[in-house]
Amino acid sequence: IMAASKPVEVPGGGGTAGLSRWQLALVLGTPILLGAGAIYLWGRRAARRGKGAGERKTPEGRASPGPGGESGSGQPDGPGHEEMSPLGRAQAAKNKGNKYFKAGKYELAIQCYTEAISLCPPEKNLDLSTFYQNRAAAYEQLQKWTEVAQDCTKAVELNPKYVKALFRRAKAHEKLDNKKECLEDVTAVCILEAFQNQQSMLLADKVLKLLGKEKAKEKYKNREPLMPSPQFIKSYFSSFTDDIISQPLLKGEKSDEDKDKEGEASEVKENSGYLRAKQYMEEENYDKIISETTKEIEAKGRYMAEALLLRATFYLLIGNASAAKPDLDQVISMEDANVKLRANALIKRGSMYMQQQQPVLSTQDFNMAADIDPQNADVYHHRGQLKILLDQIEEAVEDFDECIRLRPNSALAQAQKCFALYRQAYTGSNALTVQAAMKGFEDVIKNFPRCAEGYALYAQALTDQQQFGKADEMYDKCIDLEPDNATTYVHKGLLQLQWKQDLDKGLELISKAIEIDNKCDFAYETMGTIEVQRGNLDKAIEMFNKAINLAKSEMEMAHLYSLCDAAYAQTEVAKKYGLKPPTL
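Above: the chain sequence. Below: its structure as tokens.
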């Protein structure tokens, strides 16, 4: 599975297997359209150079500027008569309240703001909205969140684009655990502030992640198991070289009889569920693997360890980690089993732990695999990927070197070592080492011209270096070598956006990816993110929901829900306030 492609969420896969999308953005430096809260990404650069994250605590002396830019506080009726007008008396009460507020006397401040509200002429919308917002600020200091939300609602009704009131209400909704309402308010604030206030950006990100986790936990628990596409499964198994269960059947293990017309497995000489499962694997009849391996396990057959590992692997492939773990545990504890089986089980359990964000357990499993089977190249290859995730680049390179020493023809390890060195040089802004790493990629594709991974990783690096034309050529090489790899089309589509801002071409390539593999969640996610940036929010939500139904882990599902919720919040904000962020 290509490291430059969408990270595969199946533990132990090749390339960036096990990386979540936001981790991939960190590891690979993907420039656009990836990561939790990607709805807001277009404004993040502005956020870094924009306003700070200062708390909005103080009450206001004047109302927020209205659409015309005037303060809206109203003019006095005439010289010397302000104190006699209803608005003048309201302003005086508000000013008195501000003094109490600054002195920390919030109950007295509330009384003054209440007086200002009752004195203010009802047609003075902007002034009245300020009085409600100031009273909400005082309630906030007393942690009376329901009252805060109520007063902010009044303020927003009077002045729909009142940033302070919207943000204060968002914080109150957060305290009241009204996540959906919080998200809508903070989304409106982000758009009104042109995504330049870090405090509101951080709240948006926080509530998106909480909503995503909450929804994913419920959805994942009740999800229907879904077998990935045959291309995905074959790519997954191809990332292992020392994996007994993925090797073809030996001559003595199957008869020479032809398969029947339905594609059912030919009869094997032994009545073994495991050998039947292996035959089904060769026929790409993957839906029958779990049931056949279960027969072998229940019969305590001679291939029990192999059957447990194969069943666990397919549980992982369909996204059922809780069912996979007991099988992996059992294989790992079988001291009389083939050491290659135990090491493979440790790699898969270690990758599963990393996917579940348990890096300590993950590292323990990889280290144990290296201890029990030190000549197993797969251990170092997959541990190298773990080390990249943990930002331990030097250790990752050591592991890739050991993999290459054991298997000098391992093009995958050569390419990934090169990419690790490139990332180290790129993040360190060292021009000479970046140049050396780019030369390394040239060597990899020269020495291993049939390795799609080499071209794909080189394309990522070239994109970083803004050498878009050459990156495009590398993706074309990948497609020539692996025409049925949907993720390459997605990356080539993303490149068109970054290089030429060609949305139509980008969407055409991503549509091609879906045509090749209609279970490619990365393609649906990317298409959804592009539709958000085009302003087609309903279409985006449809795409994100398709990706959610195909997600292979709870963590990936949470990320996708975050994207979907962000898009949905924007549709609600557009309806309520007529606010939309800039589109591509």
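The domain at 226-246+271-373 is CATH 1.25.40 (Serine Threonine Protein Phosphatase 5, Tetratricopeptide repeat).
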